Amino acid sequence: MRVLGIDPGLTRCGVGVVEGDVGRPLRLVDVNVIRTSAGVPVATRLVTIEAGIAEWLEEYRPDAVAVERVFARSDVSTVMGTAQASGLALVAAAKRGLPVALHTPSEVKAAVSGNGRADKTQVGLMVARILRLPAPPSPADAADAVALAITHIWRGGAQSRLAAAAEAAQSSRAGDARVAAARKAGRR
Question: Secretion signal: which residues (predicted)?
Fold first, then answer.
């Protein structure tokens, strides 16, 4: 499974692609940050972010996209910029028919470090350890994007397999019911 993790932000939007499966070593494909300048109009900054995300989707062709779920902070302008960048990521993935998962910051921290309250340094160090990198991806937004991709592979991949198994079981039960009904109708 190949996952594009996106840590949305208006100034720095982290993007990272990780490849692998649950129970197997993961591999970092690429990581970077899409940057915009605070001196540029917001609409222009959003166009830059959307174009950057589209480039990553086209170049790396992920199987899924994992985006950090926006949560309320004290600074409304930060929340707004993050939400706008997050919306762009969701739309870009949806346009390409890719499944999208939202993961909370504490879920990501717990997945990669075992501690839902881990700080950015701890998350970066664990990302480096998990992927066998000499150093954490930098800046922290890049490491966070990679952590999102890791989380999705470990948690989202397992969740999608469970959902597929449940759907198959339900389909099998429906088929069994049709066969039983056909048998019963044949006896009349």
Answer: none
